[in-house]
Design goal:
74 residues, mainly alpha, two-stranded antiparallel ribbon
Length: 74
């Protein structure tokens, strides 16, 4: 299963740049993470969740719950 992170960004009117800036991470770091092919070995990590939480002014568990509920793909 994969997380459709790009759909999440679109639905929340966010860009990768905004997420990187809000989270305090480098654009290249977040861009690489969001654009790499996801496998069981390379899932979304805590840094990514933290950046998304900062950008949406939510807690990490709220972001994770939303991703699991609405953005999982088979």
């Amino acid at each position: 299963m994969e997380i459709d992170i790009k759909a999440y960004l679109v639905d929340h009117d966010l860009t990768i740049y905004q997420v990187a800036k809000a989270g305090g991470y480098g654009y290249t770091t977040i861009h690489k993470s969001f654009n790499k092919p996801q496998t069981e070995a390379t899932s979304l990590n805590l840094r990514d969740l933290d950046a998304l939480a900062q950008a949406t002014q939510s807690s990490m568990w709220e972001v994770l719950r939303e991703l699991e509920t609405h953005y999982l793909q088979d």
